[in-house]
Automatic annotation (TrEMBL):
<keyword id="KW-0460">Magnesium</keyword>
<feature type="domain" description="Nudix hydrolase">
    <location>
        <begin position="1"/>
        <end position="127"/>
    </location>
</feature>
<dbReference type="InterPro" id="IPR020084">
    <property type="entry name" value="NUDIX_hydrolase_CS"/>
</dbReference>
<dbReference type="Pfam" id="PF02581">
    <property type="entry name" value="TMP-TENI"/>
</dbReference>
<feature type="binding site">
    <location>
        <position position="54"/>
    </location>
    <ligand>
        <name>Mg(2+)</name>
    </ligand>
</feature>
<feature type="binding site">
    <location>
        <position position="25"/>
    </location>
    <ligand>
        <name>8-oxo-dGTP</name>
    </ligand>
</feature>
<dbReference type="GO" id="GO:0006281">
    <property type="term" value="P:DNA repair"/>
</dbReference>
<comment type="similarity">
    <text>Belongs to the Nudix hydrolase family.</text>
</comment>
<dbReference type="GO" id="GO:0044716">
    <property type="term" value="F:8-oxo-GDP phosphatase activity"/>
</dbReference>
<feature type="binding site">
    <location>
        <position position="20"/>
    </location>
    <ligand>
        <name>8-oxo-dGTP</name>
    </ligand>
</feature>
<dbReference type="Pfam" id="PF14815">
    <property type="entry name" value="NUDIX_4"/>
</dbReference>
<dbReference type="InterPro" id="IPR000086">
    <property type="entry name" value="NUDIX_hydrolase_dom"/>
</dbReference>
<keyword id="KW-0378">Hydrolase</keyword>
<feature type="binding site">
    <location>
        <position position="34"/>
    </location>
    <ligand>
        <name>Mg(2+)</name>
    </ligand>
</feature>
<dbReference type="GO" id="GO:0009228">
    <property type="term" value="P:thiamine biosynthetic process"/>
</dbReference>
<dbReference type="GO" id="GO:0044715">
    <property type="term" value="F:8-oxo-dGDP phosphatase activity"/>
</dbReference>
<dbReference type="InterPro" id="IPR029119">
    <property type="entry name" value="MutY_C"/>
</dbReference>
């Protein structure tokens, strides 16, 4: 069942949600408004028809967010989810349903159908994910990260595999201080126990860590901490879903300077793998800010990069 789903953003940045009528599938849970796309119906027409029927509004701006295929015991749904804005009209629950504008951060505290977890994550995640590159002193690292925070980066993975754990964590703590005033999140590389550190915003797993059972990460994980993973093929994307990570990077999409000689999958294969995954996927490898639109239109959350963010002033 092809479902058109709308993450409706008001001018103040809040998001419109509705409560599903009790007598419907997933009744009593909050939803992002939308409904079934009729055969031969164009997606945008379907979405505006549903929003008119359910809420008495129409929308004029559309941007793809995420596509999730989810198997419920009763049926399989394809939630084709778009961020929409340019709302016309005042929303009201035409079917007697409760409707509410909420801050994005509130979404994690509400009960949605089981398929919706990745939608909520996709709403909260930015389009750009920076992975730190080479640095020869703490001062250089701090200077480069500061500059990118000022440039608007809000999600950063601190990668320095050449460092021992102790100096790595020491620098990580400093970077975390830098990130805080910007409300930016710093993801670390490491083992599950690291999640116990009060200042740890989350962990980015290597693909070989995906075999660690989800229960190991759950033991330590607190509300608000991100769990991400590096994936390079379909099998790892499935492992990441099973490990219950929040989002992934998919690489290498194009040839890169940091991994010379590694075969890249290309844009077409990356699109196919991205559409097949439930999770928000950042494209990584030889891409920069100028590829963001292409990635998003291909179903990705956005672009992750070392080079493009690290080397440019
Ligand atoms: N609209 C919407 N549907 C969702 C969400 N999450 C989720 O699992 N679903 C499921 C529930 C339903 O099985 C299906 C969407 O159906 P729907 O009930 O909205 O369809 P509709 O508006 O055409 O309703 P109907 O009157 O024809 O029953 O997708 C969500 O966030 N929004
Ligand atoms: Mg509906």
């Amino acid at each position: 069942m092809h479902v058109a789903v709308a993450v409706i953003r008001g001018e103040d940045g809040r998001i419109l949600i509705a409560k599903r009528p009790d007598d419907k599938h997933m009744g009593g849970l909050w939803e992002f408004p939308g409904g079934k796309v009729e055969p031969d119906e164009d997606f945008k027409t379907a979405l505006n028809r549903e929003l008119q029927e359910e809420l008495d509004i129409s929308v004029s701006q559309f941007e793809p967010l995420i596509t999730i295929q989810h198997r419920y015991p009763e049926k399989t749904v394809l939630l084709d989810t778009w961020k929409v804005s340019g709302v016309q009209g005042t929303p009201k629950g035409n079917e007697g349903q409760e409707v509410q504008w909420v801050e994005p951060e509130q979404l994690t505290t509400l009960s949605f159908p089981p398929a919706n977890g990745p939608i909520v994550n996709a709403v909260l995640l930015p389009r750009q994910y920076m992975v730190t590159g080479l640095f020869s002193s703490a001062a250089e690292l701090i200077e480069k990260v500061s500059r990118q925070l000022e440039n608007g980066l809000r999600l950063i993975q601190f990668r320095a595999p050449w460092l021992q754990e102790k100096p790595y964590l020491h620098l990580a703590r400093e970077l975390h201080h830098l990130c805080q005033p910007f409300n930016a999140k710093l993801l670390l590389k490491g083992n599950p126990e690291l999640l116990q550190e009060s200042w740890c915003d989350g962990i980015h797993l290597r693909s070989d860590q995906l075999s660690v059972p989800a229960s190991e990460w759950k033991k330590y994980r607190r509300e608000g901490q991100w769990l991400a993973a590096s994936c390079h093929n379909e099998e790892q994307l499935l492992e990441a879903e099973a490990a219950e990570v929040d989002f992934v990077t998919l690489s290498p999409v194009r040839p890169t300077k940091s991994h010379p000689g590694r075969l890249s999958m290309g844009q077409e294969r990356a699109t196919e793998l991205t559409r097949g995954s439930k999770l928000p996927v950042y494209w990584l490898g030889g891409l920069g800010r100028s590829d963001e639109q292409l990635a998003v239109e291909s179903g990705a959350q956005g672009v992750a990069a070392i080079g493009a963010f690290w080397s440019i002033r």
